[in-house]
């Protein structure tokens, strides 16, 4: 899973938006014109935000060149601890609003966002870049199924490198966005809107199944179900990556924390119940790789 998601709020990435502004789900985002002056309840170097009851207004001064997946990191650093964002729905709405208010036209805005993000990820300059690089190195076979794909940057990376890849996510708007953007990027990706715990594909549908930064969004029982489903779908290997956090990042929708001991426990249990070999490693977070014997 990429850093930000368009999930529970069911945001429409292509909803009409006046030039320089975007509104949805009680959130209004405007691109600032002119110099910044401190005037809101919360003012940071790049954002001004205030609430009026349940309504949230955010102003920003980001430029088209700054639209990328690392926007999630900037939002977290500047607004995450202020309390102005009430959970993941506000975070997602502000994220979407920044993209749409910075460039006029839905497709133009998202294409710029995707190209910037892919350039940063594939050049190694994005925060998530080492995770994608490591996951790509661990893949075996040519057919890959990615669970919890969100924006689908990892499937797009694999498509560029000649893999036969399918992206899945619970969010229909996000899968629609990926399906519409991927042909324009000349990186074909199949998309399926589904729960990662119930993917409508046959057993052994892929050589490798990936779940990158997905399990931290799920409680233990749901996570175990997803791991079982991943093993059903994988002919050869399952690759799991999770962040190591002191506390789950609520603004990202994280509900569970991991460490190497927990990954070892998961691997040992799956080895007993599914007859797989488990390997645990630490690299920009934790890794659990499950191989069929």
UniProtKB/TrEMBL annotation:
The keyword Transferase applies. GO terms for molecular function: S-adenosylmethionine-dependent methyltransferase activity. Residues 145-237 form the Methyltransferase type domain. It holds the Pfam family Methyltransf_11. Keywords: Methyltransferase, Transferase. One of its GO terms (biological process) is methylation. Gene3D superfamilies: Vaccinia Virus protein VP39 (3.40.50.150). SUPFAM superfamilies: S-adenosyl-L-methionine-dependent methyltransferases. InterPro entries: Methyltransf_11, SAM-dependent_MTases_sf. NCBIfam families: mycofact_MftM. This is SAM-dependent methyltransferase. It comes from Mycolicibacterium goodii.
């Amino acid at each position: 899973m990429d850093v930000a998601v368009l999930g529970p709020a069911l945001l429409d990435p292509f909803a009409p938006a006046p030039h320089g502004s975007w509104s949805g789900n009680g959130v209004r985002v405007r691109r600032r014109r002119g110099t910044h002056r401190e005037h809101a309840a919360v003012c940071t170097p790049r954002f001004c935000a205030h609430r009026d009851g349940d309504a949230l207004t955010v102003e920003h001064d980001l430029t088209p060149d700054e639209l990328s997946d690392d926007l999630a990191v900037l939002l977290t650093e500047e607004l995450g601890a202020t309390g102005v964002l009430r959970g993941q729905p506000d975070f997602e709405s502000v994220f979407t609003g920044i993209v749409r208010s910075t460039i006029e036209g839905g497709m133009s805005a998202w294409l710029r966002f995707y190209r910037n993000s892919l350039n940063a990820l594939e050049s190694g300059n994005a925060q998530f870049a080492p995770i994608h690089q490591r996951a790509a190195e661990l893949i075996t076979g040519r057919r890959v199924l990615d669970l919890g794909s969100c924006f689908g940057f990892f499937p797009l990376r694999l498509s560029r490198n000649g893999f036969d890849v399918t992206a899945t996510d619970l969010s229909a708007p996000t899968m629609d966005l990926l399906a519409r953007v991927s042909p324009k990027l000349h990186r074909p990706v199949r998309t399926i809107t589904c729960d990662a715990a119930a993917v409508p594909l046959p057993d052994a549908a892929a050589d490798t199944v990936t779940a990158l930064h997905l399990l931290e969004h799920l409680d233990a029982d749901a996570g175990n179900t997803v791991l079982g489903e991943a093993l059903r779908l994988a002919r050869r290997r399952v690759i799991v990556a999770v962040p190591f956090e002191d506390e789950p990042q609520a603004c990202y929708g994280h509900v569970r924390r991991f460490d190497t001991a927990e990954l070892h426990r998961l691997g040992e249990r799956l080895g007993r119940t599914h007859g797989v070999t488990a390997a645990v490693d630490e690299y920009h977070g934790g890794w659990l790789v499950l191989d069929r014997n």
